[in-house]
Amino acid sequence: MYYAWLENPRNVHKSWDIFFRNTNAGAPPGVAYQSPPPLGRTLQGLTGVQGLIQAQPNVEKLVEDHLAVQSLIRAYQVRGHHIAKLDPLDISCVDFDDAPCTIGFQNVGFYGLTESDLDKVFRLPTTTFIGGNESALPLREIIHRLETAYCQHIGVEFMFINDVEQCQWIRQKFETPGIVQFSLEEKRTLLARMIRSTRFEEFLQRKWSSEKRFGLEGCESLVPALKTIIDKSSQSGVESVIMGMPHRGRLNVLANVIRKELDQIFYTRNTDFITLFVFWSQGSGDVKYHLGMYHKRMNRVSDKYVTLSLMANPSHLEAVDPVVQGKTKAEQFYCGDTEGKKVMSILLHGDAAFAGQGIVYETFHLSDLPSYTTHGTIHVVVNNQIGFTTDPRMARSSPYPTDVARVVNAPIFHVNADNPEAVMYVCNVAAEWRNTFHKDVVVDLVCYRRNGHNEMDEPMFTQPLMYKQIKKQKGVLQKLSEKLIAEGIVTTQEFEVKRPALQSLNHQGPAALTLPVDRHQRRRAGPHWKHRCVRPRERFHHPRRFGPNSSCSHEYSPRVLKNVCCLSRAAGLSRILKGRANMVGQRVCDWALGEYMAFGSLLKDGIHVRLSGQDVERGTFSHRHHVLHDQNVDKRICIPMNYVSPDQAPYTVCNSSLSEFGVLGFELGFAMASPDALVLWEAQFGDFHNTAQCIIDQFISSGQAKWVRQNGIVLLLPHGMEGMGPEHSSARPERFLQMCNDDPDLYDTNWIVVNCSTPANYFHVLRRQILQPFRKPLIVFTPKSLLRHPEAKSSFDDMLPGTHFRRIIPDDGPAAASPEKVKRVIFCTGKIYYELIRERKNRGMDDDVAVVRIEQLSPFPFDLVKLETDRYLNADLVWCQEEHKNQGYYDYVNERVLAHLCLCVCRYAGRDPAAAPATGNKQTHLTELQRLLDTAFDLEAFYGKV
User: Fold this and answer.
1) Of 700, 652, 657, which Cα lies nearest the Cα of 678?
2) In what order do the strands lie in the sheet with 849-854?
3) CA 201 to CA 144: how far, in whole Å?
4) S-S: 685 plus which of 114, 199, 728, 789, CB 3.0-4.6 Å?
5) Single residue among 799, 820, 836 that ends a domain in this structure
6) pTM
7) 661 and 362 in contact (C-beta within 8 Å)?
8) Residue 344's beta-bridge partner residues?
9) Taking every annotated instance into account, which residue ranges of this chain make up the domain Transketolase-like pyrimidine-binding (predicted)?
10) Calpha distance 83→79 (Å, rounded)
11) What is the CATH number for 276?
């Protein structure tokens, strides 16, 4: 710049010209700079170095004052929300650690300014838009405009965002003078929506005053808030909105946002009773404030159709968050929406749950991961300023419940929910933010809860001062109507006419709410499930009852195998891939190759396969290697399975974050979107599902019974006692079996539980999961040591046409040839089989003992077990497991053998009861193993004889 100035002083700004002239004249450091004179003022009479030296005190004061004003502006941008009027009750418990307030007219002295400076004119920095078209303003006006922008009914947190463009975008939306304005039509629409929201709650309170419904009273502006977000998003091209929310306000949202028919919300037997609509008489159903809905309707603002989906969820509050994200990701994937412009998600939260539930944090951390991002979610917090009976100061350690959102640089817009116009504006901005930057954003509706936790709760017991204040509060509809009448937007007569016009649901009464037929089930499931909506008691003829032919045809299996072999020279993996090529040559497969063939054959058939979990690309046990990494070029990878066939379906394999709760919920949501995809979640070790138990209990196990929603998600849970200690041994099969509503008919179980012992059976069960005419969750206890066990291999012949999944694998040794001579039949499942046959061989008991593998635990194979027991009429029955007696499968199996097959009790051979899943001592493990094998084969020990 200096050389440019030497060439021609006009090449640089005037300030630089003065600086270089003064420097060349010998001005000392700090004096050469001369601040631009405000409003045309010049330092007349002061020229050269001597003049600058004489003017130095004035220049420094001028510079300091301008810097002080810039600091003041920044302080409003950072901390303006501290003094914003956000709480409609004016008793906010937000705690900023008693930090002194540094903004406001009375605090200008903190910046070195005085009251006399309020009328001085200061040049505005480029990091603010409060000037509009003006570049300088008096300090008094600057403060006034800053307080208008940041300290009224809207508080904005955004200065922690490390992107200048995004910060400037937000400043422009809130600082530009007069930007918060609405047309006459928009105000009338807002009033109409407020009327519908308020009248709906009044209707429920009048008709069912003693019924739990978790009403929206105190935050009725939520309904126009959501509709504003949907309107704006639809105008931006969004075609589908997927929502998740807790129970508070759900009925109102269903009725006035999703526009679910009232006869689907209410089913009445008399005027004092309300319940949910029972879709199937066999289903358990759920309470009315847990139900969801799928609905496609015309948006009157954008004149475009938009699909609205509200996910069903239990009272576990935030558990639905990752499920919504997974379903959103799937919808984006299937419609080719790679930027989130067509499909988006909205998540509603309670303030206490948003701060207290760890799943919120897990979900936020999925927001920017390549295989999990939904390109921005709008989070709406219904901030009641209280939990059940817990004050905020007892419920969180952060000032706001929304502070968790700061970890992903999501802007947070706090707004007083008693100002519907401010709510409407903030929601418009939030929708624009999401559709501009495709990143998360939070809208914090600061409101109150007019009733207790539910309508039967008495809040005065624990929050007397708050509820005394609430009783004095005017309703938000009353406040809005009075304001609009005062502004001349509507007249009192018009308002009175509007109320009954939008209150017509009151006249229907309970008598008009009749029980619909189950055609509505399809509307709840979504468009991709139309051909899958069959009744649970719709039986299938016997050949299909236990699963279709799941074999692999000749015409495309060689293509899959060639895909495996052609990459055998990949650097760093040549030994592993060469081993696979050798197995192909020998026409045998291990566990990894069997899985590869199952996935590849499904992909060739056009079935999308998605495998997710911690380290699944390589596999926890270094057995899978579905993603190959260039050893010399960073980030250069190859996924061979995406090159099986030119017209194949895509294969998605993705390492997840170190999360189980969030990621399993996400994959469950992904599987909900379409029945024609194989979606698998693999735990790093089987017991890692412990931290995802809420998703398993509340969504996977009972989802169809409660919400009439089928789901075909597959859980792969590595399981086996191998001396690794208590933490990486057991996938807790007893938990899954305890939750089975077992039935001989495969369709009537809530899920399928298998423990495969051969790669071929694993191959078949994965293919059967897609080929069967219905969808059930599949729980697979996968092996660890069997991944490379020399005996745990299958021939290709076991996967060719005519083969299928084997629910039971009978003994095929000498004992099976002479069943009348067999003294004992040992039933088992999983890895223990290989230890049993090794022990049987060592003891020379191949003729005396038959070992039968039960591969499918649920639905229990009653018919096949009966065939085996009838075959060995002279034999004792033993159930052998490597798990402890109070764990594993024994109680489940023994009950079914005794009660349903009318057989004697199975003798038990296994570990003694224990509190921990496994010992942490290798020698103790081996001792326990040998003891259970002795019990299984030693007749004397078996009968307790000497």
Assistant:
1) 652
2) 808-809, 849-854, 824-828, 876-884, 907-911
3) 39
4) 728
5) 799
6) 0.88
7) yes
8) 241
9) 589-789
10) 8
11) 3.40.50.970
